[in-house]
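Internal QA ticket QA-208
Title: Verify multi-chain structure generation after dependency bump
Assignee: T.L.

Test input:
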Amino acid sequence: MSSRLQILVVTIFLSSLGIAVALYKGLALGIPFTPNETTSIYRLGAKISFKAKDEPIKISLAIPSNQNGIKILSQETASQGYGYNIATTEQGQRAEWTKRESTGQQSIFYSVDVVMDKNHHVKIPDELPSDKTEENLDEWDSQTRDAAEALLAEVHSHSADDYSFTAELLKRVNEEKSSQLLSLFKTKDSYNLEKIVYKLLRYKGIHVRIVNAITLEGNRQNMNLKPYLEVYDGKNWQLFSLKKGKVIKPKKLFIWQRGGVSLLDSFGTENAKVKFSISQRLVPIKEMVLEDSLAKKSMIIDLSLFALPTSEQNAFRHILLIPIGALVVVFMRIIIGLRTSGTFMPILLALAFMETKLVTGLILFVSIVGMGLIIRSYLSHLNLLLVARISSVVIVVIGIMSIFSIVSYKLGINEALTITFFPMIILAWTIERMSILWEEEGAKEVYMQGGGSLLVAVLAYFAMSNELVGYLSFNFSELLLVVLSIIILIGRYSGYRLFELIRFNPVKEF
Amino acid sequence: MFGFQFISPRQLREKGILGMNRRNIHYIGCHNDRKNFPLVDNKLKTKQIAQQAGIAVPAMIATIKNQSEIKHFEEMIKGINGFVIKPAHGSAGKGILVIVGREGNNFIKPNGEKLTLKDIQKDISGILSGLYSLGGKYDVAMIESLVEFDPIFDNYSYEGVPDIRVVVYRGFPTMAMLRCSTKESDGKANLHQGAVGVGINLATGKPINAVQHNRAVSIHPDTGYDFSKLKIPHWEKLLPLAASCYDITQLGYLGVDIVLDKNLGPLILELNARPGLAIQIANREGSVPRFELIDKQAMNLSVEERVQFSVENFGQ
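Actual output:
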């Protein structure tokens, strides 16, 4: 294989591997491609309050489970001195609190943290109705019963199937006229609207169940779950709102309890009631996805930098920026043709600038190197051997840095304290190289190379301190394979450098 | 843009100008085997292999390899008035000490400055400790006999050493340039420091064009002499000398630096495995078409056949 073809194959392989892994992490695992993408986590709290009656207490609360597009991240309970466990029943999970004896007003807290996908909507699981109980209207007096029968007959004649029957019935009970009828029911019993409609539908043999839901929105306290109805027409389930009728693809609706007998059961208590609260907080999507993926042992995450301890992760945040700096250096040297003093000195300089901030860093760098050069020019009179000379320069640089720090601190310029972030050895070598350059090639070459190095360092600093670049290089570090293949490609660039177009300008006249 | 004049890459390609990247990838990278680099980077080795092959070089007086030999320096130069001390690993003329004569116990530099034996011994000690070598490795000091420069160049050089750079590609002389030091270049023959480069016709040894800082000049800026009147003597000996350096180094892209001695004729001063690009401007021609023509030639030709080919084809 010719080397040209090899390079093509290698770069295509590397960059497609990098992009594929990044896409998998982004699309399948849901790590966002840009920093600071946030999502809402909703904390849904249930506060059960009751009065204990000096006898064994047992509280049972229906609790929610994962549903389409909404994930339960965690659940917790605060119940001083109560035994707590979760029971799985036919109608879903229930949390149970028990205590041998207690007196007075008691409160139990239960909460879940949920998070909602962008493309979430309520999807009713494909299951057969389990509600087989027969309902009759026997408990009502004849007047109420007649009214109900009349209403059902009216609705029946205005509907075609179970869905339209339900919709029509809901419409009528919400109308003013039948509201009066409804008040008739209400005065007899403490029935809620959903229970009456449920009873009427079951009486007509329609499969229906009550769901209790909460809308994921805002921060609210002391509220009740909102009842909805789900009707089965023999094939599918359909959600109905008591006020608005049929609801198609409802959004932001979190089903707390589906079917089932009661939301809250209690024994050995008086006045037991449950009130709900919702609070919303914003969290970075990335953290959430990572926690989730790490918990699930997703291999690609588990074998990545995210599995490292935080301090090492932070070290890698810096290390992974070096390839970006290298890309800038490679580009500036090979494509533009800028000369720098020391191949990778600009990258280390850029890393230091990231700690000191740009302007402070530039001032500090120029002043250290400037002073270093003056002292180095004296050292060169002493005619020292190289190793001894460099070592002396290192010590001089450390001295300059210390004096700089002390003086600036006393003057109240705290920015200058970041001077310690400059790599001393690199500074010493820079001074050494510049001073040799000065002696051999003259001051012009020092300005050229020094200026070139600083320019590349500043450009690398801008590239490396870019928030998106920093975010991608750490969180999608496989994209560095793309950087690698770009560098390999530039490494085979045999065209003219930009500066050569100036240098060879006289060729125009040939 | 920014007050600079740009030439389009297409125009450069049409003129066959070799750029830095292409030189590094296609010429140095493909034709210069890394393992042969020490042959040219170490001047002592260059001299040894050149002498073995019978190639003319300035005569070697002695070498000093360690500090203890320095005290024998005086014996080494007994009876020799002019000599040159240089570090084997130096580059671009660094660390070279030229002594043109003696006066009692003192040694005289070309600018008239007098040095004592102690001064010279200190300089040699500096060379050995790696003061001038890349990366500061320990070095060897070479003592060579002084080249008596052909007076023909006296009018075309300010202070320094005029030399002729021949680029030899796969054994074929490809381009030649006379490098004249100026006041600005501080007596050095490096073009980017302000020396004048004079392109030389390979067939005749006559000048084509002179440039300083990439701009055409017709007279030497310090001496005022007209370059067009120049003709390089011994030209017929010079090209075979340059071409034969390929056979001893096996470097396909080679720069050969030659000086002219009044009595000995052309001598190889230095070899360079990374010759620069300015020679193209001095010759008013790109080197790529010449390289491509050479690529089509058989590789088993003798030195004479190769020189013959170059003279016929690159004689403009």
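Spot checks passed. The two ends of chain A are 40 Å apart (CA to CA).
Status: verified.
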